[in-house]
Amino acid sequence: MKLEEGQILHGFQLQEKGAVEEINSDGYLFVHKNSGAKLYYLANDDDNKVFSISFRTPPTDSTGLPHILEHAVLCGSRKFKAKDPFIELAKGSLNTFLNAMTFSDKTMYPIASQNPQDFKNLMDVYLDAVFYPNIYEDPDILRQEGWYHELENPSDDIKYNGVVYNEMKGAFSSPDQILFRKIQEHLFPDNIYGNESGGDPDVIPELTYEDFLDYHRKFYHPSNAYIYIYGNGDIEEHLQFINEEYLKDFEGKEMDSAISIHPPFNSPRRVTEPYPISDQENEKNKTYLSVNYAVGDSRDPEFYLAFDILNHILLESPAAPLKKALLDAEIGEDVLSSYDESLLQHNFSVIVKGANPEEEDRFLNVVYGSLEKIIEEGIDKKLIEGAINAAEFELREADYGRYPKGLIYGIKTMDTWLYDEHPSVHLQYDKVFKTIRKALTTDYFEKMIEKYLLNNNHQVILTLVPEKGMIQKRDEEVKKELRSYKEQLSEEELDALVQETKTLKEKQAAPDSKEDLESIPQLSREDIRKRTEKLPREIRSNLDMKVLYAEHYTNKILYTDIAFDLRVVPQELIPYAALLAKLLGRVATKHYGYEDISNEMEIYTGGIGFRVENFVDRKKEGQYYPKMIVQGSALRDKSRRLFELMGEIMENTTFENKKRIRDIIKEMKSRLEMVIQSEGHMVAVRHLGAHYSEAEMFMEQCSGITFYKFIAALDEDFEQRFEDLQQKLQRVKALTFNKQNGIFVVTGDGEDYQAFEKNSKVLEEHLTDEAPKLVDYHFPLKQNNIGIATSSKVQYVAKGYNFKELGYEYTGHLQVLKTIISLNYLWNKIRIEGGAYGAMTNFSRNGNMFFTSYRDPHLNKTIDTYNKAEAYVRDFEADEREMTKYILGTISKVDAPMTPSAKGEKAATHYFCNITQEDLEKEREEIVTTTVEDLRAQADLIRDVMAKDYLCVVGNEHKLEENKHLFNEIDAIFK
Prior knowledge:
Residues 504-523 are annotated as: Disordered. The protein is 44% helix and 19% strand. By secondary structure, the protein is an alpha+beta fold. Strands 1, 2, 3, 4, 5, 6, 7, 8 and 11 form a 9-stranded mixed beta sheet that branches. It is globular.
């Protein structure tokens, strides 16, 4: 349809249209005449369509009102009366993305689907949710999703509970999260950014039902709405639907939601804040030092992109001069940067982790002195060129992993649109790059440093210091507050509170009526694609090495991986292989300093990376194939340089620079600690698996708790172990990068493959050529139920075993069961009734099965829920419509769209795991034909897995100690 500016279509007037060439789209900016809603449509040929509706939601305090409302509106609405339409859609749609997000000043509700009817269904449920939620009729939604006083018996102590309350307790257990919250609080004390939109657990209980409803009335109006649609849908049909079903019933109104720039400080401010550590931890080397700046304006496209590049130049590249200066000064153990561009006013932070409070002045002297020196001496032009090229490659590649690129573009539009500028500003970057490239011949970035950092008084010097007993002290204060509150209640009020708690729990436990469930739109099984997409995979040969070639159009980008068999590495050296992967490309080679090799990679390639991965054979029990993956990408015409650099790194990396290796090990220790604190659910799963699976034990030594301990011990005894470390790294490198030990994985079109064949010849001189000797690994496996004690306020509880070891077989039915248990049983029991942020299960093709919970206030109760899953499955009931729903939700994950590079990687994974197209088709057939009887038949499997009683919990030290009878060992991991 040809649309003209000024034209009115279904109540929407087209204000402006124009090509957005950088993303091969045409943009159409509309306003709804009646309601004032704004709509931006990006038309293109992408069938992974994206819709989102967003609202400007400035937080007026730290009760978490925007965040709680984001959860609450998805708990039933005018047309869709089920208690949780969101989870019903997760169970039973073909969505490729389904979520909601609270930012510091906006709330977004995005969905994506490739199926046109599914896309319309998802859009309908979300629009009804935001404009007509059930929150006005049902106060229990706030109690469940936000907070409430929990009292099951009059004699019990009152407790706080609620999903967001527990989620934020978990978030505020992480020192990194505490730091970022305090930075924003002190950098913007007098505007909305000083408030915690997600909610501070100490403040959340101040939120009242009246304030909750008033906030929705005020901000969830079309006049405050930003609607975004992307893809190859029918825009006229979408506009007609949105107008007739929703917007025509609203009148426009004046909105008081404007967001303003914070007045600049007259001088820098200094602040010290505490954060909790466990009783076993030492306070030494646990302080965070930071200097933080309010910089720029999100509406400025040049600043937006240029400062992101400057951040990379100063602190993220291995050649980053400010990071190098801080590491050379030996302040702390890890240097981090943070640059938040999702606000009207950005904030930029220079952070040192693992320091001590008395080092603050020296830290500031190094930061300020280094910035002055950088301005005086100028930034290395190769570093600038590399940083600009890396940023441009990333934008043009538009590979955002499992996230639809239309979603990422939608989030970018809000970085200007929310502040009354055009939504396409940050999508149109060609002209901006031309301006920024002037930095290659001018002092462009040096002037930015001078303006935004050295001469900027709007800065906060924030020191975060460790404090033992902080959680216990706060817990006691909360208990005291609640005891005092309870003492003020009359007997009748106590009984009313008990009844309120009982009513909520009964409501949570009660199933939705058939009528309410059937109000939610659903596709049929006929909408499911009949066959699993056959990923191209052709076996060829090059340099006498096997090549797995996946032919895909990749827009002139050649993706080349090399998978080297790691079974050449002796068992005692496995952790050193994982360390080697972290060092390669970040330390010097014979011909390049580490800064130079980094610059060369950024100038000429899309990146060269190294990682350890393990592939478990689908057919041969207990067989697995650990690989060192060398991953590279480059524009086709720069592919020769890609292979030259790959070869240089694999053959000529040296381990002479003791200081550099020490710095990387300290950084690794710091980053692994962050993972343990923020991703405890998956850390617990890996450590659990290492006690019953040799394949999992291999990976535990490369990335889990065991690897963390290896790195921490290396850091502790580095001086004594350095020479031995050099020898072991050299040995692993020499054994691994062997022509007879590797397989190429190539993704691209025919011309890309020709470039690969021609240019990869330079690799031959860099690889050894010897018959590899494979090692047969034997890991002693034993049950060791372990608690990993941290300062967290919540738990991550994992329980599981390998069902193949117990005589069961993997089938596609288990994938449907995974959907049902994760999104039905665990969602209801652990999240809705228990107040945890989340829980999940998994049944893998290799037989590993686990349950795990996330930000969970409970421990025993959660284990009991896991143990009762058998009974739930044994008594499971569902009618034909419900079974179709679960099958749709399962297939949506199987058929999730992939980028060309991801398809090439997936095809290689299937090859390494001995998975054929026939296996995939058989699994698909089992999924789509799953019956209630097939699911009930898995009850014995769950019973027997749970009966093995293998357990791992990452969580609060005192909670673990109270339940020490569950564990063989409690490990206070952070010293």
